[in-house]
Amino acid sequence: MPQEIGKQGENPESEQLQSEQSQLEGPQSGCSQGKQPQDGRSQSESSQGESLQSTGSRGAFITFEGGDGAGKSTHIKFLARALEQCGYSVVRLREPGGTQAGEALRQVVLDPSYEGLSAESELLIYEAARAQLVKEVIAPALAAGKIVLCDRFCDSTIAYQAYGRGLSRDFVQEANLFACQGIKPDRTVLIKAPTSARKQLERATRAQGPDRIELAGVEFHTRVREAFDAIAASDPDRVRVVVSASRKSETARLVFAAVADCVGWDANKLPFDEHFFEQANKIHGASRRKRGRQS
Ligand SMILES: Nc1ncnc2c1ncn2[C@@H]1O[C@H](COP(=O)(O)OP(=O)(O)O)[C@@H](O)[C@H]1O
Ligand SMILES: Cc1cn([C@H]2C[C@H](O)[C@@H](COP(=O)(O)OP(=O)(O)O)O2)c(=O)[nH]c1=O
Predict the structure, then answer these.
(1) What is the whole-number distance in angstroms between the Cα of residue 156 and the centre of ligand 2?
(2) 85: containing domain
(3) Residue 42 within a domain
(4) ipTM
(5) Which has the closest alpha carbon to 169: 215, 129, 123?
(6) Atom of ligand 1 at shortest distance to CA of 70?
(7) pTM for the whole thing?
(8) Which residues of the chain have pLDDT under 70?
(9) Is the minimum distance from the CB of 30 to ligand 1 under 6 angstroms?
(10) Is there a domain that residue 216 lies in?
(11) CATH code at 222?
């Protein structure tokens, strides 16, 4: 059983997405310098962002997983903003999507009017979008030393197409390997909602109505949630479970801690206050479904 972080308190269901865009304030000072740059310079001579990029070392690849409506987009937004304010160069992506072809494939695979789409076709669409994203965006960004945050990746395919749809897990794994071309996440944050699959689906579909996958039913989504638990249990070094059971800002701090060793910051010394989270949350609402490639 993997360690679950943040599993206490009430989930503030009353916190709604803000619909208006707002301008965030400029860079904050005071980010702790958790990781010594590898080029011999002292921490004071180099921002954390530079420390990954200036050494020519590969960046960090962090994926977010979880059921629909768990809170992935919310926490990616917070993490991206926090990293940027600490000087890191961040690329924010979602799957399926993130490329021109991937966004077109997303339209197809999520469109409820394609109700006859087979599980096999569905798998290949997700893998096609992924192969394009890896080649066109993720691999070059990592080579340039950037931090890549991706809303869903291969674990979603295991959870939805293998456990959910019932396709062969071995085949899905092979297809994932083929699409990823050797790229693997350094860390995966599994966001878990402390509610039932039914409530979680309601939360996911409240704003825009259900997409084709969200229409697959509560039993399907229960299997998906169980699959994520099984994946986390089988790979605890990579997958950290964060339960979004308290205020968004509290959950976000758990996420910041869950990626600390990957990005090299000291999560206990980060300078982000409630105002930071309120501002970041406002931007999140307006950008969520509109943009494919979010950097
Ligand atoms: N602690 C929390 N963490 C994240 N989201 C929360 C939390 N509490 C409530 N929510 C709400 O849950 C909804 C789904 O969040 P979202 O980030 O869009 O999920 P996902 O990307 O996993 O589908 C949003 O309306 C969000 O405001
Ligand atoms: C990446 C991926 C996503 N999916 C599903 C999960 C989601 O229901 C959907 C992506 O829609 P999206 O709106 O991005 O998800 P969320 O509601 O969690 O923010 O595609 C798969 O079935 N297989 C996959 O490989």
Answers:
(1) 7
(2) 68-281
(3) no
(4) 0.94
(5) 123
(6) 22
(7) 0.85
(8) 1-56, 284-295
(9) no
(10) yes
(11) 3.40.50.300
